[in-house]
Amino acid sequence: MKVVVDLSRCEGYAQCAFLAPEAFRMHGEEALVYDPNPDDAQREQVLRAAAACPVQAILVDRLEGRHAPAGASPS
Fold first, then answer.
1. Distance from CA of residue 27 to its chain's centroid?
2. Distance, CA of 27 to CA of 40 (rounded, Å)
3. In terms of pTM, does the model score above 0.90?
4. Are the C-beta atoms of 6 and 49 separated by less than 8 Å?
5. Which pLDDT does position 30 carry in this prediction?
6. How does strand 58-61 pair with strand 31-34?
7. Distances (CA, A) of 27 to 13, 24, 55, 62, 70
8. What is the pLDDT confidence band of residue 64, given thresholds at 50, 70 and 90?
9. Under a CB-based contact definition with an 8 Å cutoff, are residues 46 and 1 in contact?
10. What is the pLDDT of residue 63?
11. Is 8's pLDDT higher than 90?
12. pLDDT tens for residues 19-63?
């Protein structure tokens, strides 16, 4: 699973840090720090955190069943 947070959109409500503390945490009162590749064991908490974000700043890419074509370069 890959997580991307639009930090220009994040307003520091910290709902994500409350719901998925292993993947998201607040640094100070307003700066969010997050794990862009959380462990699959955290999947449900991360999905709940993304859904709870009041400004929808968290995007989760569920990589199940996806495989990059052979020879594809990462973008």
1. 16
2. 24
3. no
4. no
5. 80
6. unpaired
7. 12, 10, 19, 26, 39
8. low
9. yes
10. 63
11. yes
12. 999 999 999 888 999 999 999 999 999 999 999 999 999 999 976
Q: What is the DSSP string of the chain?
A: -EEEE-TTT-----HHHHH-TTTEEEETTTEEEE-SS--GGGHHHHHHHHHH-TT--EEEE--TT--PPTTPPP-
Mark 32-59 as b/e (b = at least 16 C-beta within 10 Å). bebeeebeeebbebbbebbeebeeebbe
Q: Which residue in the block uniquely carries the two structure tokens 């997580």? A: 3
Residue showing tokens 């959380």 = 38
> 25: which strand partners?
33
Q: Minimal CA–CA distance to 32: which of 20, 22, 24, 21? A: 24
